[in-house]
Design goal:
GMP Synthetase, Chain A, domain 3; alpha/beta; 423 residues; 2 domains; 21 strands; four-stranded antiparallel sheet
Length: 423
């Protein structure tokens, strides 16, 4: 891998930004109207990119409602587009998103970076434990497998038991799924007396769709359950596969700055956050000219770091991966609480199989309740609530209500897990 400087990366980004503007503005109605009062030609540096307005998801949703069904963020005639996917709709009305042959190939190249950074190579067998529904999910990863010369194995339309059989019998060496589903597969394997660390050939697991693979205790649990190295990845339907974890595994993911320009703003404002401080991630994709997003507010909370990574890549690191959603942060008795921090504590207890976090208001004060589901094989749950509550007080300064749920009563998730609820 050739090593280039951050200055070279920035210069290449500016060059590609200007090429992107020249390509899309003549025909892309959404951005032509959005930038009508802006001098796009003045963007001669990354700092000057700030002269352009942000793009938000609510804007894109409103645009698709005004211009159904696909909106006006299209740079070519519809006949040129070959793929249609949609967002999961967990935060509102789903967005439809179209890709051309060129932009779909770009997706695959971005996933090639994800795979190669984790050590996946030609000859590997990649098992996709994914439903292959209308969500873009790991469809693009499936295409990326071809780019590295690996064998792609579909786990679509199968039960968890069937997938476990498929993983073992196919000799899969790489597992791709959400972190929650990797834990669920491991839990079901234990019930079936399958030792995945010895009975499967999986050596690498790659996860996306939610925080988890960068949460230390969740990562540890996945690695111990599978006897494999666990890697995080971040992406979004509207944006692309922008984040990957390298083999240095420094508790962070890189942004693929060859293909994305990253900015960071103070949550709830339009002001740039200070370098290395937590901020909302803002992204511009450089290789998806058919349906680009420019200065897109992702809603993801991150903490950038510019320290040198042993892997040699000059790309920015996001400490802890995606820390959570900006609007998921709640203040409980003066303590800033993110669901990922609570999960990190909960995953320290091997006897907890699933959990749910509820935030509610009591006498004008925010309070937190944690519902724990112990595993069916747990020898005893006596004192578990007290132990977890004490650990949360020690680590996070929280005094939550903690209660138990019967084994098997909380929902399981194949796609994005929903464990955090504001009541």
């Amino acid at each position: 891998m050739s090593v280039i400087s951050r200055q070279t990366v920035a210069a290449q980004q500016v060059k590609r930004l200007r090429e992107l503007f020249a390509t899309i503005l003549p025909a892309n109605e959404f951005y032509r109207d959005k930038f009508a009062d802006t001098d796009v030609d003045s963007v001669t540096s990354l700092v000057r990119l700030r002269n352009l307005p942000f793009t938000t998801k609510s804007e894109l949703v409103a645009d698709q409602q005004r211009h159904p069904p696909f909106g006006s963020d299209l740079s070519y005639s519809l006949s040129r587009y070959i793929r249609l996917h949609q967002t999961s709709g967990t935060t509102g009305k789903p967005l439809y998103w179209l890709d051309t042959e060129e932009s779909w190939n770009w997706w695959a190249e971005c996933w090639k970076t994800v795979f190669q950074a984790a050590g996946v190579a030609a000859g590997d067998r990649i098992y996709f434990a994914f439903s292959f529904g209308p969500f873009i999910g790991f469809w693009s990863g499936w295409e990326g497998a071809r780019k590295v010369g690996a064998l792609a194995i579909s786990g679509g339309a199968q039960s968890t038991a069937q997938r476990l059989t498929g993983i073992i019998e196919s000799g899969a060496t790489v597992l791709v799924c959400t972190p929650t589903y990797a834990l669920h597969l491991a839990a079901e394997a234990r019930k079936a007396r399958i030792d995945l660390a010895n009975d499967s050939a999986v050596r690498i697991t790659i996860h996306a769709g939610e925080p988890g693979a960068s949460i230390p205790e969740t990562k540890r649990t996945i690695e111990e359950s599978w006897g494999a190295k666990c890697f995080d990845h971040a992406g979004a339907t509207e944006v692309g596969a922008f984040g990957f974890e390298c083999q240095a595994q420094r508790g962070a993911i890189h942004i693929n700055e060859n293909e994305f320009v990253a900015e960071y703003v103070v949550p709830g404002t339009d002001e740039p956050s200070r370098e290395t401080e937590q901020g909302e991630l803002v992204l511009t994709n450089l290789g998806r000219a058919g349906s680009p997003v420019i200065r897109y507010r992702t809603g993801d909370l991150v903490q950038p770091s510019y320290e040198t990574c042993p892997c040699g890549r000059p790309f920015v690191l996001l400490r802890g991966g995606v820390l959570g959603r900006v609007d998921d942060m709640v203040v409980v008795r003066g303590v800033n609480v993110y669901p990922s921090a609570v999960e990190n504590v909960v995953r320290e207890f091997a006897e907890i199989e699933e959990f749910r976090i509820e935030v509610f208001t009591h006498q004008t004060m925010a309070e937190i309740k944690l519902i724990l589901e112990p595993s069916g094989s747990a020898l005893s749950s006596t004192g578990l609530c007290e132990q977890v509550a004490q650990r949360l007080r020690q680590r996070l300064g929280l005094r939550p209500q903690v209660e138990l749920a019967p084994p098997g009563s909380l929902p399981r998730f194949e796609l994005k897990a929903r464990r955090f609820f504001k009541i």
